[in-house]
Amino acid sequence: MSTASKTITGDGTTVPVSAVPVTAAPVTAVTCLEDRAHIERTVELDLAAGVQRLRLGPVSALAVDRTLHAELTSGHPATVLDVRVVRSWEPRPPRPPADDDSALRHRVHALEEERRTLEQQRDRLRTRLELLGRVATDVLRDIGEGTGFGEAEGPRWARELDRVDAERDTYGERLRTVDARLAGIDTELGEVHRAVYLSEEEPAELVAHVELTVEATAAGRVGLRLSHLTPCALWRPAYRAVLDGGSLTLETEAMVWQRTGEDWSDVRLTLSTARSALATEPPSLGEDRLTLKDRTAAERRTVDVEMREEEIGDLGPLQVLGLPGVDDGGETRVLHAPAPVSVPSDGRAHRVPLSVFSTAASSEYACSPEVSPLVTQVVRFDNRSGHVLLAGPVDLVRGSGFSGRGTLDFTTPGSPVELAFGSRDDHRVVRETEEARDTAGITQRTVVTRTVRLHLSRFSAPGESDDRTVVLRERIPVSEVSAVEVRLRKEGCSPAPDAVDAEGIVRWDVTLPPGGRRTVTLVYEVSASSKVAGI
User: Fold this and answer.
1) Is cis: bond before 514, omega within 30 of 0?
2) Using only C-alpha atoms, what is the Rg of the chain?
3) pTM for the full model?
4) For tag attachment on the chain, is the N or C end more exposed, with fewer CB atoms within 10 Å?
5) Structural domain of residue 379, as residue ranges?
6) Do 488 and 463 belong together in one domain?
7) Cα separation of 237 and 352, whole Å?
8) Is residue 289 part of a domain?
């Protein structure tokens, strides 16, 4: 709540702050952070010589006071002495009723709209009657002048006077009807206003202004830039991928929400992944003591092993786990909207285009039956947008139209991108596994033989004649200890794998004709010495 204060003008007089005219300070630039926004306003001021206080706004009542900064941008000899945000509770301005408002407020709005229409109609009728009065005066003057010259056109004069009098009577009657209806509306509107006052209390609205104290040595025009942080604003990346044969078009957009209390109209929008709310102090260091102890005889005789799931990582920034918001690879990223943007303060999502590029793309049909029995179309292309692609949802579009929604991972400029374009309903994969355990007589090694069979089938529509290659991927364990060995039995695999990488991923490129079926068999052995426990 603001307190009463005085304003010192250039001539030394003092006036209340409430009497100082308010200078509009619209938003001109916005930097939308991950969970708030940095607002910038630019305004031109006419300063008088001396110390004076200016009132700018209105601004959002959510403005963070400690971040408010004022800077004069021109070379005028003036200095900012003080700047602050002053808030006050004021009655809300009239606005159209919402759907959940009462019937009284809807009636008030209907009566005010009808009164506005009738007032416009009354003004038009009064203008028409004034014109008809001038026409009657012209006719009477014509009669007087004609009579003086000895002209006698009685029938024509009588006909014109009758026509003018008839129109004046008609429009006069309409004007009396409109005046009567306006009087009735004023009476009814007064009764409805009293009913609203007695039955409903309109809450006041918190309005904020910026009070600026400036000292100028000479009168003149000066530019001012105001900036501050405001909560209740955020953004997230979104994409739209259009696949057309061997070409892919990727549109980068920003979904912007804001409910700061003021609209952003034609502003320069900057999008940043900075998290200004996080603490910047490094964590405190604590002691981490390591102790050594001798193994027992039982521990020397036994090697405990266990199976562990491990995600295969690629080169690039490490993914930040458990942190909500935008995945920026641990480094602040900044994107710019290419054109001015308007975002109303309605709390809804608004799409802001950022960039678009087209590039060549390769496509393959891939399946990892251990993870999912679906055959997925995977598209690979390079990031040619010129900026990083932040992790976010992707609307997938291909020849038949919108086909679903996927997810795009964090990608640096120029790096390869993999994007799944949904599964194929005309393919089916069934996975079967068998396991056999045996112990060698001499070495007492435990040998576990696992057999995986993949049954792949294709259901083709009439008229299809092309072959389709499906990339199947299975995995075999990778041993980290010398006491456990993993061996792929290529003589038992049918067909032989096309590739086996260091992470244990086995790959087959299976070609299926229309309506074709194939069975792929994978056999591998896991052998461990007698000291190993856990296999």
Assistant:
1) no
2) 40
3) 0.69
4) N
5) 233-275+326-423
6) yes
7) 10
8) no
Residue 418 shares a structural domain with residue 454: no
Domain match, 125 and 75 both = no
> Is 291 part of any domain?
no
Number of independent structural domains in the chain: 4
- Judge whether 467 lies within some domain: yes
Query: Alpha-carbon distance 214 to 78, whole Å?
Result: 7
Rounded distance between C-alpha atoms, residue 239 and residue 508, angstroms: 32
Distance between CA 268 and CA 71 in Å, rounded?
19
Q: Looking at the structure, tell me whether residues 11 and 152 fall in a common domain.
A: no
Q: Do 516 and 388 have their domain in common?
A: no
Q: Render each residue's pLDDT in the chain as its tens digit; 535 residues.
A: 333 444 444 444 444 555 578 899 999 999 999 889 999 999 999 999 999 999 998 999 999 999 999 999 887 889 999 999 999 988 776 667 777 778 888 888 889 999 999 999 999 999 999 998 898 888 888 888 877 777 777 788 888 888 888 999 999 999 999 999 999 999 999 998 888 877 776 678 899 999 999 999 999 999 999 999 999 999 999 999 999 988 999 999 999 999 999 999 999 999 999 877 665 567 778 888 888 888 887 777 777 777 666 666 554 444 444 334 677 777 889 999 999 999 999 999 999 999 999 999 999 999 999 999 999 999 999 999 999 999 999 999 987 788 889 899 899 999 999 999 888 888 999 999 999 988 876 667 888 899 999 999 999 888 888 899 999 999 999 888 888 889 999 888 999 999 999 889 999 999 999 999 999 999 999 888 877 776 6
**DSSP output for 384-439:** -SSS-B-SEEEEEEETTEEEEEEEE--B-TT-EEEEEEEE-TTEEEEEEEEEEEEE
3-state secondary structure of 10: coil
Note whether 465 and 520 are same-domain residues. Answer: yes
Query: Of 199, 217, 246, which closes a domain?
Result: 199
